[in-house]
């Protein structure tokens, strides 16, 4: 496991993502990690790291077919979030890929932030940080930062990026992290997800 905290000046930065190392279960539903959505258990799994180290991570298998993914979403009760009207027999990597969300968390206007994560596997892996606020009388997505991740097969690789969510969108009040994997069809791991304020940027 990689360390989740980063020094900013003389003080340690605060990770705004609840349970970014995926070690804690939600007290409301032990099938999901605290602070995160419910994994379907097939394409998106919350389980121990497969490389022999201790701890849990999120794993996405984009080789699963669309048909099997829809069946899993239905069995888990997630079709109100994820669904494909006419699922194909081909791998979901070829079309939609797989996504997984954190719970939202508040931010401070004018502050820069750093998103960090550890990725297992080589291929199409991205991490979005999406910002939400009020626009024309309704709550909606107003911002997103995209981290195109680098990874290696059989090892964990750290990735990071600095972003400024309210520089051009001052109405943004909260963020969510979205983990995403797609092509080639393979199994990808995500761990130690952090969003931290960065002083002086």
Question: What does it look like?
Answer:
It is built from 1 helix and 12 strands, in the order E-E-E-E-H-E-E-E-E-E-E-E-E. Strand 1 and strand 2 form a beta hairpin. A 5-stranded antiparallel beta sheet has the order 3-4-12-7-10, with no helix packed on it. The chain has one helix spanning 66-76; strands at 7-8, 11-12, 44-48, 56-61, 98-101, 105-106, 112-120, 125-135, 138-148, 156-163, 172-181, 187-198. By secondary structure, the protein is mainly beta. The protein has one domain (16-198): Jelly Rolls. The protein is globular.
Task: Give keywords.
five-stranded antiparallel β-sheet, 12 strands, 1 helix, disordered N terminus, 201 residues, mainly beta, Jelly Rolls
List the topology elements.
Blueprint: E1 7-8, E2 11-12, E3 44-48, E4 56-61, H1 66-76, E5 98-101, E6 105-106, E7 112-120, E8 125-135, E9 138-148, E10 156-163, E11 172-181, E12 187-198
Antiparallel strand pairs: 1-2, 3-4, 4-12, 5-11, 6-11, 7-10, 7-12, 8-9, 8-11
Neighbour order of strands in the largest sheet: 3-4-12-7-10
Mean of residue pLDDT values:
91
Distance between the termini: 28 Å
CATH architecture: Sandwich
Principal-axes shape call: globular
Strand content range: 35-45%
Q: pLDDT below 50 for ≥5 consecutive residues: which ranges?
A: 1-11
Largest sheet: 5 strands, antiparallel
CATH topology: Jelly Rolls
CATH class annotation: Mainly Beta
Number of helices: 1
Number of structurally distinct domains: 1
- Overall helicity: under 10%
Specify the structural class. Answer: mainly beta
């Amino acid at each position: 496991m990689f360390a989740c905290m980063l020094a900013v000046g003389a003080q340690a930065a605060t990770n705004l993502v609840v349970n970014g190392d995926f070690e804690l279960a939600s007290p409301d539903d032990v099938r999901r990690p605290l602070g995160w959505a419910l994994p379907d258990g097939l394409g998106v799994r919350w389980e121990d790291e497969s490389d022999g180290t201790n701890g849990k991570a999120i794993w996405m298998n984009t080789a699963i077919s669309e048909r099997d993914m829809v069946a899993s979403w239905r069995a888990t009760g997630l079709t109100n979030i994820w669904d494909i009207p006419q699922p194909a027999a081909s791998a979901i990597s070829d079309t939609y890929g797989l996504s997984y969300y954190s719970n939202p968390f508040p931010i401070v206007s004018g502050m820069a932030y750093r998103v960090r994560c550890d990725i297992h596997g080589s291929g199409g892996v991205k991490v979005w940080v999406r910002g939400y606020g009020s626009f024309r009388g309704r709550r909606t997505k107003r911002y997103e930062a995209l981290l195109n991740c680098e990874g290696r097969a059989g090892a964990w690789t750290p990735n990071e990026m600095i972003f400024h969510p309210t520089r051009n969108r001052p109405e943004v009040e909260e963020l969510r992290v979205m983990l995403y994997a797609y092509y080639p069809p393979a199994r990808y791991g995500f761990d130690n997800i952090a969003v931290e304020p960065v002083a002086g940027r």
